[in-house]
Amino acid sequence: MNIQTVGVIGAGVMGIGVAQNLAQTDHQVILIDISEDILDKAKYEIRNNIRLQSFFQKSDNRKTPDSILEKIDFSTSYKLLENADFVVENVTEKWDIKKGIYPQLDAICPQHCVFAANTSAIPITRLASLTKRPDQVLGIHFMNPVPMKPMVEMIRGYHTSETTIEIAKQMLSQMGKECVIVNDSPGFVSNRVLMLTINEAVFLLQDQVATAEDVDKIFKGCFGHKMGPLETADLIGLDTILFSIEVLYENFNDSKYRPCPLLKKMVDAGLYGRKNGQGFFVYQ
């Protein structure tokens, strides 16, 4: 299938990254969110991200921020998706929010359109059940920052067809990415392991076993990780981390996924990490 127009639902950190990556690889993008203020902020963030990225990726063929932004339509209307070939959904990790989106997509998007949930933990089969095309729904778990991460986790739902998998692989290849295909299970592979690691690191901080700096220093110095678990949590967003762990706890009903009280307190206090300047560390 010739994938030309891609809808991106949600203009948060992940949606911004997906939209930017798609536009930089010559896709026409429709970025949708609930308000013009959010979309204006997304446009500002994409412009800044492109400028920052240019410092790390030198190229004679580098595109200007304006030429990339010209490929993105910023809108609050799902109506623009009536010609979309592919849609990537990136909204908040809450079932009550996500469940209202897929019936709208199903009603507006053309029959050939594939839906990909960029979710950290919510089961793909459950999301697919909200549509009349469950064989055309799969998960694509992009990593942050999206334009700079070459690998994604692709999740096959119960009904996902081989044709859908191949279409998604084609689009990812166009974006310059490889994928590892896994089966549907809450948290999949990456977050089923990562969220436990982050949650336990927060318990270490709560129990005063070590400072945030020292927890991360051990992971970077002893294991060669580029970022420690608490820096990683700040990058993802502590609110997203908490939502993901709560989804794992709800789905597995296993106490090992019990969210650390300190994590819940920090989210209640509005300390989300890099996205608003303070989490386990302070950002300017």
TrEMBL record:
<dbReference type="Pfam" id="PF02737">
    <property type="entry name" value="3HCDH_N"/>
</dbReference>
<dbReference type="InterPro" id="IPR022694">
    <property type="entry name" value="3-OHacyl-CoA_DH"/>
</dbReference>
<feature type="site" description="Important for catalytic activity">
    <location>
        <position position="141"/>
    </location>
</feature>
<dbReference type="InterPro" id="IPR013328">
    <property type="entry name" value="6PGD_dom2"/>
</dbReference>
<feature type="domain" description="3-hydroxyacyl-CoA dehydrogenase NAD binding">
    <location>
        <begin position="5"/>
        <end position="184"/>
    </location>
</feature>
<dbReference type="GO" id="GO:0006631">
    <property type="term" value="P:fatty acid metabolic process"/>
</dbReference>
<dbReference type="GO" id="GO:0070403">
    <property type="term" value="F:NAD+ binding"/>
</dbReference>
<feature type="binding site">
    <location>
        <position position="275"/>
    </location>
    <ligand>
        <name>NAD(+)</name>
    </ligand>
</feature>
<feature type="binding site">
    <location>
        <position position="33"/>
    </location>
    <ligand>
        <name>NAD(+)</name>
    </ligand>
</feature>
<dbReference type="InterPro" id="IPR036291">
    <property type="entry name" value="NAD(P)-bd_dom_sf"/>
</dbReference>
<feature type="binding site">
    <location>
        <position position="98"/>
    </location>
    <ligand>
        <name>NAD(+)</name>
    </ligand>
</feature>
<comment type="similarity">
    <text>Belongs to the 3-hydroxyacyl-CoA dehydrogenase family.</text>
</comment>
<feature type="domain" description="3-hydroxyacyl-CoA dehydrogenase C-terminal">
    <location>
        <begin position="187"/>
        <end position="283"/>
    </location>
</feature>
<dbReference type="InterPro" id="IPR006176">
    <property type="entry name" value="3-OHacyl-CoA_DH_NAD-bd"/>
</dbReference>
<comment type="pathway">
    <text>Lipid metabolism; butanoate metabolism.</text>
</comment>
<feature type="binding site">
    <location>
        <position position="144"/>
    </location>
    <ligand>
        <name>NAD(+)</name>
    </ligand>
</feature>
<feature type="binding site">
    <location>
        <position position="93"/>
    </location>
    <ligand>
        <name>NAD(+)</name>
    </ligand>
</feature>
<protein>
    <submittedName>
        <fullName>3-hydroxybutyryl-CoA dehydrogenase</fullName>
    </submittedName>
</protein>
<dbReference type="InterPro" id="IPR008927">
    <property type="entry name" value="6-PGluconate_DH-like_C_sf"/>
</dbReference>
<dbReference type="Pfam" id="PF00725">
    <property type="entry name" value="3HCDH"/>
</dbReference>
<feature type="binding site">
    <location>
        <begin position="10"/>
        <end position="15"/>
    </location>
    <ligand>
        <name>NAD(+)</name>
    </ligand>
</feature>
<dbReference type="GO" id="GO:0016616">
    <property type="term" value="F:oxidoreductase activity, acting on the CH-OH group of donors, NAD or NADP as acceptor"/>
</dbReference>
<dbReference type="InterPro" id="IPR006108">
    <property type="entry name" value="3HC_DH_C"/>
</dbReference>
<feature type="binding site">
    <location>
        <position position="120"/>
    </location>
    <ligand>
        <name>NAD(+)</name>
    </ligand>
</feature>
<keyword id="KW-0560">Oxidoreductase</keyword>
<keyword id="KW-0520">NAD</keyword>
